[in-house]
């Protein structure tokens, strides 16, 4: 699994796509280090233990064949703690409010960033296409040099947006396949 490395105040945090459920797993030890806190302290809190148990129950109730266990929520490997995205969000809020907001935005961008790029490009493409239709009518009735230039500009925007949509789709697929 190759990491997606994001920086919080110049500190790297490694995010991974879990091969188990295609969800995000985070290096929580890197998160804790920034704030001089320990993951073990957080994991031993009664509130955290309750959260983990409820999360396990919820995840298993959503599956036809329940197979989530504690290792899918968090695990420790070579003194590094990794957490499922949902537990990591709770952990981020325990660390710092500023970090919690950054973490939410980062996870959203990892999960939905390519979709946002796709829809933004789609909006540009639709606007450019409507402009091209309008300009084509003008060019057929009373062509001006400005309208010709505007038409080609709209056509270029349309083509660039189409390519941006294809890149976003390709990036999303490569993101999903990299997880495996």
From TrEMBL:
Residues 4-110 form the KilA-N domain. This is KilA-N domain-containing protein. Pfam families: KilA-N (PF04383). The lineage of its organism: Bacteria, Pseudomonadati, Bacteroidota, Flavobacteriia, Flavobacteriales. InterPro entries: KilA/APSES_HTH, KilA_N. It comes from the Bacteria.
């Amino acid at each position: 699994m190759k990491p997606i490395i994001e920086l919080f105040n110049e500190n790297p945090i490694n995010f991974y796509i879990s091969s188990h459920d295609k969800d995000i797993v985070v290096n929580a030890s890197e998160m804790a280090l920034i704030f001089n806190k320990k993951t073990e302290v957080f994991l031993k809190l009664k509130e955290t233990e309750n959260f983990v148990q409820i999360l396990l129950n919820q995840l298993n109730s959503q599956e036809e064949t329940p197979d989530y266990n504690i290792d899918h929520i968090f695990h420790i490997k070579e003194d590094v703690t990794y957490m499922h995205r949902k537990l990591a969000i709770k952990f981020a809020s325990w660390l710092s409010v500023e970090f919690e907001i950054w973490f939410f935005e980062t996870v959203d961008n990892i999960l939905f960033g390519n979709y946002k790029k796709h829809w933004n490009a789609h909006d540009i493409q639709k606007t450019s296409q409507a402009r091209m239709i309008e300009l084509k009518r003008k060019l057929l009735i009373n062509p001006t040099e400005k309208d010709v230039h505007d038409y080609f500009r709209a056509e270029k925007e349309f083509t660039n947006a189409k390519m941006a949509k294809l890149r976003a789709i390709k990036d999303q697929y490569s993101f999903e396949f990299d997880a495996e």
